[in-house]
């Protein structure tokens, strides 16, 4: 079994990005800027935001976090989004999810200028991915593709199963794998006999938030297993895959933590650099 080491791969990709950022600074007189907007005090969100701040510093891009009170209204948050859309110094921004219940996430996500939508969650970027057009791709599935490509995983002709169908992970993941010439099945909470599908998968991506959903018996010998899940159990972070046993049958597997998480952050920073390049190509 080979470990798909996301932490190590992310650091390598960040080294390359750092060089690219230095070149951009030389050429355009400034570095790309990422703004993260966070509403409220969700501990998991605060921890993700800190990881994004640290990665921005490592790569040398300009990072700013806007912290808003959990009682911020939808109208107030929209004002912030409109201001960031117009701010010429901001190349990309994200509104950290989940948002408090009184705010409609879709309204906020669709108000983000698609050129600055580095989470790739606006309708325009989702549509571009669907139509195989160049756009900003959600960071988690993009990071997973970068990780698998780094380990020279072949996609063409392979059978891939994605468990989970969220707009953030499962659906864009399935589309990226399809675009890479895999044959893809999406499974979800209403799939009957999940094991029937997972047992046939050459590539298995699991993004459900259900601890130990995938056991050894559900995995084909030699499969490549990507565990996206982040679950807190007795103060420890675990994924959706029974790692200790599944690693006995998988040919490659991501650990949790240290697998998909760091790749998500790297992919986000990659998107910010891409957004910067897109806007400068148009204006210079
Ligand atoms: P979500 O709650 O939006 O979606 C969960 C999906 O899992 C749904 O489509 C649901 O149908 C499916 N599901 C639930 N129970 C199932 C079951 N018993 N069998 C089959 N399918 C089932 O979650 P999400 O935002 O897609 O995130 C999924 C997991 O990935 C969470 O643990 C989240 O914390 C984690 N996550 C990690 C990263 C990262 O960077 N590592 C990024 C995003 C999300």
Q: How would you describe what is shown here?
A:
With 284 residues, this protein is α/β, with parallel strands linked by helices. It folds into two domains: 28-114, 3-Layer(aba) Sandwich (Rossmann fold); 139-261, Rossmann fold, CATH 3.40.50.720. The protein is 43% helix and 16% strand. The chain is built from ten helices and eleven strands. It has helices at residues 6-28, 43-59, 74-86, 105-111, 123-130, 139-150, 170-179, 194-198, 243-246, 260-283; strands at residues 2-3, 33-39, 62-68, 92-95, 159-163, 183-187, 203-206, 224-227, 231-233, 236-238, 252-253. The strands form three sheets. A six-stranded parallel β-sheet has the order 1-11-8-7-5-6. Helix 6 packs across helix 7 (170-179) and helix 6 (139-150) packs across helix 10 (260-283). It is globular. It starts with a strand and ends with a helix. The mean pLDDT is 97. The structure holds nicotinamide-adenine-dinucleotide (NAD). Residues 140, 163-166, 168-170, 187-189, 191, 194, 207-210, 213, 228-231, 260-261, 264 line the site of nicotinamide-adenine-dinucleotide.
Question: Notable features of this structure?
Answer:
single chain; 284 residues; Rossmann fold; six-stranded parallel β-sheet; 10 helices; 11 strands
């Amino acid at each position: 079994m080979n470990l798909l080491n996301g932490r190590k791969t992310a650091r390598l990709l960040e080294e390359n990005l750092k060089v690219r950022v230095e070149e951009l600074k030389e050429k355009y007189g400034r570095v790309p800027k990422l703004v993260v907007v966070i509403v409220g005090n969700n501990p998991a969100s605060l921890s993700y935001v800190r990881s994004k701040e640290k990665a921005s510093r490592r790569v040398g891009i300009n990072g700013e976090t806007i912290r808003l009170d959990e009682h911020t209204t939808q109208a107030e948050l929209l004002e912030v989004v409109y201001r960031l859309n117009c701010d010429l110094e901001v190349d990309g921004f994200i509104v950290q999810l989940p948002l408090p219940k009184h705010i409609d996430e879709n309204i906020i996500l669709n108000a983000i200028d698609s050129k600055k939508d580095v989470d790739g969650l606006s309708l325009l970027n989702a549509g571009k991915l669907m139509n195989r057009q160049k756009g900003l791709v959600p960071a988690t599935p993009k990071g997973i593709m970068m990780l698998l490509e780094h380990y020279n995983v072949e996609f063409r002709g392979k059978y891939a199963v994605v468990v989970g169908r969220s707009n953030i992970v499962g659906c864009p993941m399935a589309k990226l794998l399809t675009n890479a010439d895999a044959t893809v099945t999406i499974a979800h909470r209403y799939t009957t006999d999940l094991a029937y599908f997972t047992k046939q998968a050459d590539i298995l991506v699991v993004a459900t938030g259900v601890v130990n959903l995938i056991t050894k018996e559900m995995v084909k010998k030699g499969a490549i297993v990507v565990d996206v899940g982040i679950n807190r159990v007795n103060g420890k972070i675990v994924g959706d895959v029974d790692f200790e046993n599944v690693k006995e049958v998988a040919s490659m597997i991501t650990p949790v933590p240290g697998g998909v998480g760091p790749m998500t952050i790297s992919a986000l920073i990659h998107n910010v650099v891409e957004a910067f390049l897109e806007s400068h190509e148009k204006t210079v």
